[in-house]
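Researcher: Let's continue the batch. This sequence belongs to Primosomal protein N C-terminal domain-containing protein, and it's 159 residues. Same format as the previous ones, please.
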Amino acid sequence: MLLLDTWALLTRADLRASEETLRRWMNAAALARAGGRVVVAADGSLPTVQALIRWDSPWSAARELAERRELGFPPAARMASLTGAAEAVADLLTTAHLPEGAELLGPVPAPQGQERMLVRVRRANQAALARALHEAAGVRTARKAAQPVRIQVDPLDLL
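Model: Same format as before. Here are the structure tokens for Primosomal protein N C-terminal domain-containing protein:
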């Protein structure tokens, strides 16, 4: 079995690109007949390729978690993505009583002329973050805010 287009899978702008790639490769390799060979057209030093060669998904998961802890990405931390018109996102953030230590990351451009802000908190503050955003969205709804804001907690796509 030959696994091609490795870069197409590994370089996707997705927080789970590495783990999804390993899952797909392991599923494909499991279909190889006993005594068959699996050839991966990729750099053998890449961690995802090493996990496949070793057939060691727990090692890959532990490495991925350590990297996410270092970067402050889920599941080591909790993030919320707020996407909408710049004024609407600013209004929601002004209305929200975010937990202490919340970090605002952004804004970054989003599709259709919108912007995206990320709010990052420690895992211990995940319930407080969800509650603050829920209440702020409720206040905006009660005020009949004209522009919506999409709220996603721990989105897979952070870009």
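Researcher: Any comment?
Model: The mean pLDDT is 88.
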